[in-house]
Amino acid sequence: MNTKIQIQNKVIPHNKPTIGAEEIKAAADCISNLELTMGTKVKEFEKAFTKYIGVNSVATSSGTSALHLALIATGISRNDEVIIPSYTCIAVALPVLYQQARPILADIRDDYNISVEDIKRKITDKTKAVIVPHMFGYPADLKEIKELCEEYNLYLVEDCAQAIGALYNGKKVGTIGDISIFSFYATKMMTTIQGGMVCTNNSDWIQIIKDLRYHDQCRSLEDTDVRIKYSYMMSDIGAAMGIVQLKKLGYFIRRRREIASIYREKLNDKIIMHPQESEEKKHVYSRYVVRTPYNPSTIIEKMREYNVTCERMYVPPLHRRTLIMKFNSNARFPKTDAILNSAISLPIYPSLSDEEAEYVVDAFNKVASTFSSLSKK
């Protein structure tokens, strides 16, 4: 059967994990050896990740639990203010709420990352930290944000859930802030099925995080009563998969960049592609997000007719979420709203073939070309 016809007859998902025989064997070996919960494989994965990232690493059950432990380690508590972007996953805000702190939202820039200028406008005497997600795999403006944090004595928390392997001025993201977190959820850059990592070279914070991630470890009765602890452990099964995935990460990044180059070269010239890479920042394309002058929901619906799944990201935004609105009642987020009304995420993952990527582009261009007869927003 013709390759194009084969592609037309199957659904191209928005994202999916890339898992091979090695990961399956690693997980099966753990089960056979009864290595199930946090044990030798977790330690091995932490060691490998520390070597890769260049910062001491502690494995956790998820990116959300990693961020929660990072905030506890930095001392975030009741009524402290933590600045986060309005355009991001609610999982960035929830750990702030876990600590009974206040998530204060900042607007974003055209590259989808948090605005340095709006961070500065939102700083008060109660501000203790800024969480900076590197959106869709593209580094935020770390130099300017770090200088701002140093000026106001704030902690810089890098959220690298979407950006493992991305580079800022030749340095891996996750090595520039005071503390950083990573996520290994099924659709992230690499996966442990569920899982996360906290990275910092602050040895006191490392000890706190190690202590708090497991509620049933104690050196004495007094130690047990010092802090509330959590069940935030990574399993050995997940860690065994992570060890294999980490070895493949270089290929995963190269493949995502190859697919991105196909999109960049062949997409309709009416489509706005942000960000444009610079020498300063290397994108890893955990998502490939474009902006159009047309209604994104209508385009997504039309793309389904071609068996291509696209998505709108972060709808509704944090400034329209009930849990967050009360902390940001008078704020406005014009850039976030503009992007929400124009942004579409295209399929991108390492197992997407060149032929499939080209089919996605062809379908998208055909759909976009029909919009001259449809009303614009």
Structure explained in plain terms:
The protein has 377 residues and is an alpha/beta fold. It has 2 domains: 3-10 and 249-373, Aspartate Aminotransferase, domain 1, CATH 3.90.1150.10; 21-242, 3-Layer(aba) Sandwich (Aspartate Aminotransferase, domain 2). The chain is built from 14 helices and 13 strands. The strands form 3 sheets. It has a 7-stranded mixed sheet with strand order 1-9-8-5-4-2-3, with helices on both faces. Helix 5 (94-98) links the parallel strand 2 and strand 3 (102-106). The protein is globular, with a radius of gyration of 21 Å. The model has no long low-confidence stretch (mean pLDDT 93).
Oligomer: single chain
Name of the CATH class of the largest domain: Alpha Beta
CATH architecture of the largest domain: 3-Layer(aba) Sandwich
Strand content: 5-15%
The mean pLDDT is 93
Q: Write out the strand line-up for the largest beta sheet, numbering strands in chain order.
A: 1-9-8-5-4-2-3
CATH superfamily of the largest domain: Type I PLP-dependent aspartate aminotransferase-like (Major domain)
Reported for the largest beta sheet, the result is: 7 strands, mixed
H/E element sequence: HHHEHEHEHEHEEEEEHHHEEEHHHEH
Tally of DSSP β-strands: 13
- Estimate the helix proportion, in percent: 25-40%
Q: Between the first and last Cα atoms, what is the distance in angstroms?
A: 41 Å
Q: What's the CATH topology name of the largest domain?
A: Aspartate Aminotransferase, domain 2
Shape estimate = globular
Structural domains: how many: 2
- Please tally the helical runs, counting DSSP H or I stretches of 4 or more residues: 14
- Alpha-beta classification: alpha/beta
Rg calculated over all Cα atoms: 21 Å
Uncertain regions: pLDDT < 50 for 5+ in a row?
none
